[in-house]
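Reading a protein record of the kind used here takes only a little practice. Each token is a code from a learned vocabulary of local backbone shapes. With that in mind, consider the following protein and its fold in token form:
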Amino acid sequence: MKQLQDRHHKLLLETDTRFHRYMYDRINWNSRMIGLTGPRGVGKTTLVLQYIKENLPTDISLYVTAEDFYFADHRLLDLADDFVKRGGKHLFIDEIHRYKDWSRELKLMYDYHPELQVVFTGSSVLDIHKGIADLSRRAVMYHMQGLSFREYLLFFHNLKFPVYTLADVLLLNVEIPRQFHPLQYFPDYLKQGYYPFSLENQDIHIQQIVNLTLESDIPQYAGMNVSTGRKLKKLLAIIAKSVPFKPNISNIATSLNVSRNSVADYCLYIEEAGLIAQLRDDTGGIRGLGKVEKIYLDNTNLIYNLGGEKAEIENVRETFFFNQMRVNHDIITSSVSDFRIDDYTFEIGGRKKGKKQIENIPNAFVIKDDIEFASGNIIPLWHFGFNY
């Protein structure tokens, strides 16, 4: 316990509190059990350490990571028992999916220690979803993704702007100082601004995220062997070269030498882990159950990292819009254009994009890259990066 407390105090001393991710203020920190999930690299660990440092007495709070060697011969439940006996009130467990039987022991913590608040995070959304059935009545779950364009401006350039909702954007209520020129920063965000870590060695960091996700997180969750794990990398390579594309499951299955059902499962695993995003139609009725119409890489940084100089700007634009807007909205495919959100239709393009494709369609908008200002139903693409 002393060793864990020493690490806890050291981490708090090293935690920078000058910048908070959007999720910091969305979480109800009064809940008895809180789960925070999301792809690797989006800042979940920093967020919980910031909360501890700014809000909790150090003598009644403890941060641990389930990857710690301490848990090679200690149980999480035993740690919680000991912590409560010492007066502990707030236990934070990072990388919870790395601990065997984590959902069962969290359930027991909740039932045995009503005076203890437990906050846990998981880099792999997959394992959290697998175990959440046991916790559905106990844990309040949150999901976090990478930086918005608005957050990037604050994190990397110390430029502060308010959040603008979709309604604000469509009603042309976005107010930006005249001395601010967004196109000075937007291309850099698209290439290397999604993940909140240093721009130095950014490509290496992203490659590490991709490799750990495909070689460790997904195979561990799905019980895959090494050869199947390699097929995940091959599948992502196929997607990266083709996005956005309407998936031909039969052709992909032949290329990977697997069944059609396996391809659908692999795509879902990679999507849940935060490396791709699947655009569905409205046949499912609720999120996630519609037919997959297109597959994108999850964010624009992945496009440039995996595709390099071959990155197509049309793909980058659509990926940015899809990525940013899905945080607060359900996005589906449009039969006449690129995307639909509720009753609104969106056509994405460059400066010269015309209106012909959306003529006579109510509530339709042309979203243009490479412009600074909105006019009528023509709106700059970067406006949609202020959504969170």
